[in-house]
Description:
Blueprint: E1 2-6, E2 11-15, E3 19-20, H1 21-27, H2 35-40, E4 52-57, H3 67-72, E5 80-82, E6 87-88, E7 92-96
Parallel strand pairs: 1-7
Antiparallel strand pairs: 1-2, 3-6, 4-5, 4-7
Amino acid sequence: MGNINFVKEDKEIIAANGANLRQKALENQIDIYTFKGKLTNCGGYGQCGTCIVEIVEGMENASPKTDVENRKLKKKPESYRLACQTLVNGPMIVRTKPHQK
C-alpha cells in the first residue's frame, strides 16, 4: 500500500501495490489532463501521451518505464511519466500537468 500525494490538488489517496496511477487519479476526481488531453486522450493505452505527470518524490516506488514511455518522453525530464503506464508500489508525490507552469 502507498499514499499518493497530488501536489497541485492538495489531495492524498491510498493505492494498493500495483495500482495504475491514471486509474487511481480518475477514481478520485484528480484531473490529469489538459484541455487538449481531455479531447484527444486514448483512454489509458499509452498511445497519445496526454497523461504526463511528474513524480516529485518516490520514483523508486513506480514501475520501470515502459518502451512506450521511453519513446513518448525521450525529450522530457526523467521525473516525467505517463500516468496510464505507471504502476504504484509505495508512497509518492505527484505533480499533475507538469508541462503547464
